[in-house]
């Protein structure tokens, strides 16, 4: 087919007498099929390591017990994979490398159940479009084997008889010989050999019944040499070394409830003694090596929250699922997957990991990172923010005493999954679609890939993304994150249980009085009581909906007893409950379903946001707030002036330490809960690019240049 494309001059729009030749559009031609195939093949086989992965999977599928890999020039010159599997029949050799030829499925239904792995029968074909492929194979009971070479999907000549040992050897030479740009960029980048070694290590610890070896061409020794064993731990020891194997805990989780999730998981995770520079996550789903970013980040969150010093773990996990529950949604060779009921599965796995890590740590002295829930409830009556403790104690349970806060938050959670298909309400779908469609891709990249440096002040965090520094408003960001989470969890909330139900009228009164303090307004108490009564009535009327969709539980007597969990591992500031209730009464538009859901989600989002604590920040001007008021000026004889000999500079120690802990707790949560969760879940709306939520403060490149000049 003719590949030349006619050169075509730009059309001059001003020309008064148009030249008919110029009017003609450039002719559209079908691309040469080989070119199309090459482009497609380049997508399946992106780099040498992806070819190795396909070849090894084929060898495993062929029932091999021994697979050896030889690599020359990072795989660009040669990749050779030899196995002792069942081999390939002589009569199949001619079509072996045609597209969509496979021995692994035949019916359409088969395809449905393994479609998850994508690109069936495409790997070998793809390799022949981007490299020179030679196959040597022998099947059981044959005296000799055959060798054939392939190009562009076609066998080049009749298979030649040759001597062969059991199994198949596939050789790819000169990978990307016909893709100059790809070849060049791969030659420039660090070569793929370390990636190939890493890949084989991963296979070796999952397929423990197979011996794997990997060697660089010309090297005397193999870089991986695993020996088949019945013990996974032995396999990990032989591949990753004693230092990894001795610091592992075994884990297991499963669920078998079709309305919830169906899966089995087992694996090994590193303990608090394991220290590494980066996370190693080896994940097999239905025996296929895959990546699942959401699960990986969820595990990172658990480590950061539980073992901050060992927060780059080693994880090996094998998950078994009904095949139709897996969806491959990113690149076929990367095998990034998402799972049906992913959130439920991830949550289950998280909680198993968390309790395992905590238990393993019990005997050690363990630096508690989160303030226990019971400490979040204020008990000091002088505390200006402490008036709620009468209502808002989280139910004390035996686990709550002394042990970790995460565990105790969880123990106070009552699982209330609602199996009803409420999420197909169109208004919710519309709202979530709006989130997707207004997502700002650049900000998404920043949020997803930035590193958190620290808090610049009470509201702005300093972030680095590539060579740029940004200030990001954590209050705005967390409001948006929580809003989005409320919509995602719609009708599927877990709950925080209040130990003593709180009467709505009292909560609303508190909120109204708080507003008075802020605005110097002074509505009389009768009016406030009237408002409180009316709002209580209003909320009571909507109680069923609030419970079912939003996990806010108000009983018939108008007492609040449960709140939704919007973000795991995070308990909101209970002092802001009155504000939430007042918002529900005042700010929600109950007439239009969509606006109603939107405003409720926003109210819950505001409640959950990482607002600055109500106590002023003591590390700054706020400190003066904690100085004791001299007794002489205290005429009402309240407790703050009770010390007769108080000097002006004396500090309310208890209040101060409470404030310090609230602020450091918040900062810790911003780093270890908010940012990891934003990476996972936040879709920043376009408005954030211009409303001051993100402010670019510096380009490091420019700074370096300035430093250089100095
Ligand atoms: P798929 O693995 O999706 O079937 P491939 O293109 O990777 O597609 O392989 C095509 C077919 O070639 C396989 O279905 C299998 O029958 C055969 N094959 C490939 N590699 C081997 C091997 N190492 N041993 C035996 N058969 C193989
Ligand atoms: Mg294959």
UniProtKB/TrEMBL annotation:
InterPro entries: DNA_mismatch_repair_CS (IPR014762), DNA_mismatch_S5_2-like (IPR013507), HATPase_C_sf (IPR036890), Mlh1_C (IPR032189), MutL/Mlh/PMS (IPR002099), MutL/Mlh/Pms-like (IPR038973), Ribosomal_Su5_D2-typ_SF (IPR020568), Ribsml_uS5_D2-typ_fold_subgr (IPR014721). CDD domains: HATPase_MutL-MLH-PMS-like, MutL_Trans_MLH1. SUPFAM superfamilies: ATPase domain of HSP90 chaperone/DNA topoisomerase II/histidine kinase, Ribosomal protein S5 domain 2-like. Pfam families: DNA_mis_repair, HATPase_c_3, Mlh1_C. Keywords: Coiled coil, DNA damage, DNA repair, Nucleus. GO terms for biological process: mismatch repair. Its main location: nucleus. One of its GO terms (cellular component) is MutLalpha complex. It comes from the Eukaryota. SMART domains: DNA_mis_repair. GO terms for molecular function: ATP binding; ATP hydrolysis activity; ATP-dependent DNA damage sensor activity; mismatched DNA binding. Residues 236-358 form the DNA mismatch repair protein S5 domain. Residues 510-544 form a coiled coil. Transmembrane segments: none annotated. It is found in: Nucleus. Residues 1-15, 646-656 have a biased composition (Acidic residues). Residues 402-412, 630-643 have a biased composition (Polar residues). Residues 1-26, 402-422, 628-656 are annotated as: Disordered. Belongs to the DNA mismatch repair MutL/HexB family. This is DNA mismatch repair protein S5 domain-containing protein. The lineage of its organism: Eukaryota, Viridiplantae, Streptophyta, Embryophyta, Tracheophyta.
């Amino acid at each position: 087919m003719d590949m030349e494309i006619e050169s075509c001059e730009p059309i001059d729009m001003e020309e008064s007498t148009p030249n008919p030749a110029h009017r003609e559009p450039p002719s559209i031609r079908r691309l040469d099929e080989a070119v199309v195939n090459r482009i497609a093949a380049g997508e399946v086989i992106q780099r040498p390591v992806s070819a190795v992965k396909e070849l090894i999977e084929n060898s495993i599928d062929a029932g091999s017990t021994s697979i050896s890999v030889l690599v020359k020039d990072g795989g660009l010159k040669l990749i050779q994979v030899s196995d002792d599997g069942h081999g390939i029949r002589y009569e199949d050799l001619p079509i072996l490398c045609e597209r969509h030829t496979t021995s692994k499925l035949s019916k359409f239904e088969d395809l449905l159940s393994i479609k998850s792995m994508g690109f069936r029968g495409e790997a070998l074909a793809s390799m022949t479009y981007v490299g020179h492929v030679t196959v040597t194979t022998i099947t059981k009971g044959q005296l000799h084997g055959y060798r054939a070479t392939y190009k562009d999907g076609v066998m080049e000549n009749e298979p030649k008889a040759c001597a062969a040992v059991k199994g198949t050897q596939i050789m790819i030479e000169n990978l990307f010989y016909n893709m100059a740009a790809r070849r060049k960029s791969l030659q420039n980048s660090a070569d793929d050999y370390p990636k190939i070694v890493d890949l084989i290590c991963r296979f070796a610890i999952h397929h423990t019944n197979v011996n794997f070896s990997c060697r660089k061409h010309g090297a005397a020794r193999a870089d991986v040499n695993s020996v088949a064993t019945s013990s996974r731990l032995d396999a990990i020891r032989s591949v990753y070394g004693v230092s990894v194997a001795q610091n592992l805990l075994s884990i297991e989780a499963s669920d078998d409830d079709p309305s919830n999730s169906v899966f089995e998981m087992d694996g090994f995770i590193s303990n608090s003694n394991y220290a590494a520079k980066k996370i190693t996550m080896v994940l097999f789903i239905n025996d296929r090596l895959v990546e699942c970013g959401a699960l990986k980040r969820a595990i990172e969150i658990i480590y950061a929250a539980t073992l901050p010093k060992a927060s780059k773990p080693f994880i090996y996990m094998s998950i078994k699922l009904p095949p139709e529950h897996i969806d491959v949604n990113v690149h076929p060779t990367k095998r990034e997957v998402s799972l049906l009921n992913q959130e439920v599965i991830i949550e289950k796995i998280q909680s198993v990991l968390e309790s395992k890590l905590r238990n393993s740590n019990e005997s050690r002295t363990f630096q508690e990172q989160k303030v226990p829930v019971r400490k979040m409830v204020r008990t000091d009556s002088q505390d200006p923010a402490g008036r709620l403790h009468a209502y808002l104690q989280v139910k004390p349970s035996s686990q709550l005493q002394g042990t970790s806060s995460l565990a105790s938050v969880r123990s106070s959670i009552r699982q209330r999954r609602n199996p009803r298909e409420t999420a197909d309400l169109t208004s919710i779908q519309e709202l979530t679609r709006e989130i997707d469609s207004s997502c700002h891709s650049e900000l998404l990249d920043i949020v997803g890939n930035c590193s958190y440096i620290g808090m610049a002040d009470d509201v702005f965090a300093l972030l680095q993304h590539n060579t740029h520094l940004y200030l990001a408003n954590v209050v705005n960001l967390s409001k948006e994150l929580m809003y989005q989470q409320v919509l995602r969890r719609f009708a599927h909330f877990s709950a925080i249980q209040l130990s003593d139900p709180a009467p709505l009228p009292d909560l609303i009164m508190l909120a109204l009085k708080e507003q008075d303090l802020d605005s110097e307004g002074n509505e009389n108490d009768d009016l406030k009581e009237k408002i409180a009564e009316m709002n209580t009535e209003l909320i009571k009327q909507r109680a069923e909906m609030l419970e079912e969709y939003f996990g806010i539980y108000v009983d018939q007597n108008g007492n609040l007893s449960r709140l939704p969990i919007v973000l795991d591992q995070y308990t909101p500031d209970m002092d802001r409950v009155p504000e939430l209730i007042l918002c529900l009464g005042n700010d929600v538009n109950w007439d239009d379903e969509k606006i109603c859901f939107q405003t409720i989600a926003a109210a819950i989002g505001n409640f959950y946001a990482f607002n600055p604590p109500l106590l002023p920040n003591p590390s700054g001007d706020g400190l003066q707030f904690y100085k004791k008021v001299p007794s002489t000026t205290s005429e009402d004889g309240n407790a703050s002036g009770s010390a007769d000999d108080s000097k002006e500079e004396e500090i309310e120690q208890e209040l101060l330490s409470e404030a310090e802990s609230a602020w450091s707790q918040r900062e810790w949560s911003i780093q270890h809960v908010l940012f990891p969760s934003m990476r996972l879940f936040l879709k920043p709306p376009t408005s954030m690019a211009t409303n001051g939520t993100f402010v670019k403060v510096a380009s490091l490149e420019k700074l370096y240049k300035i430093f250089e000049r100095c």
